Amino acid sequence: MTGDDRRYTAQVRLSPTRSSRLSRSSSILLVYGILTLASVLWGALRGHPQIYRLGPLVAERTLFNLCAGIALGLAIVFLSRYSVHRWQWARKLHHEFRHLLGPLTDLEIVVLAIASSVGEECFFRGALVPHIGLVASSGLFALAHIGPGWRFLPWTISSFVVGLLMGALFLWGGDLSGPVAAHFVVNYLNLHYIRRYNFG
Fold first, then answer.
1. Which segment of 54-58, 95-99, 130-134 scores lowest on mean pLDDT?
2. How far is the CA of 74 from the CAs of 12, 14, 199, in angstroms?
3. Given pLDDT bands bounded at 50, 70 and 90, which one contains residue 18?
4. Which residues, in sequence order, are CB contacts of 191 under 8 Å at separation 6+?
5. Which long-range contacts (CB under 8 A, 24 or more apart) does 88-96 make?
6. Per residue in 110-124, is it b (16+ CB within 10 Å) or e — as a string?
7. Mean pLDDT, to the nearest integer, of 123-130?
């Protein structure tokens, strides 16, 4: 083996492989893909297979819902950033998420933001809201956002409030375009923020 071969072998061993990064993204897609499929099956069993909308699809209404969703998402992002700069518990939570998530690539952030917004909105809003109501579905959404320890309680409580807002947007707008857009904006911008800033 030549010196160049040894250097190349060492580089391959030390550098993170693409397959490991892709496997993390693939895992995210698998989990939320299963959740989306479960949503469609639940809706079909309850006689409402079209979980994406409550009534007929109207293009102009969908565009308005998207704009409303983006506005809601930006408002939630502003409040979360304000909290991090204003209160110690929010900075601690930010630090905990940074530690739990580890280093995220741009691809992983995009995949996580898209997959979670589609999967969770299909399930908690599209499948559950029409059948168990706004409050109960928001409660289940909050339970799905329980972290390891009491320090994550503010995240769980805020998830309940966000669930109410997303569910209300779904009922008001008539389809999931608004909630999905809001959810994507929140996750995409906040994941970038968590990766970039360390308040620990």
1. 54-58
2. 41, 39, 21
3. very low
4. 101, 104, 109, 112, 113
5. 89/151, 89/154, 90/154, 91/199, 91/200, 92/151, 92/200, 93/151, 93/152, 93/154, 93/155, 94/194, 94/197, 94/199, 95/198, 95/199, 95/200, 96/147, 96/151, 96/152
6. bbbbbbbbbbbbbbb
7. 94
Q: CB-hemisphere CA count at 13 Å for 83?
A: 16
Of 9-18, 50-59, 166-175, where does the model show the most confidence? Answer: 166-175
SS3 content of the chain, % helix, strand, coil (to 5): 80, 0, 20
pLDDT value, residue 22: 55
Token pair of 42 as six digits? 């639940």
What integer pLDDT is reported at residue 7 of this predicted model? 43
Structural contact between residues 171 and 65, judged by C-beta atoms closer than 8 angstroms: no
Q: What are 49's two structure tokens?
A: 């297979």
- Separation of alpha carbons 200 and 95, rounded Å: 5
Name the one residue in this structure whose structure tokens are 């998402």.
Answer: 73
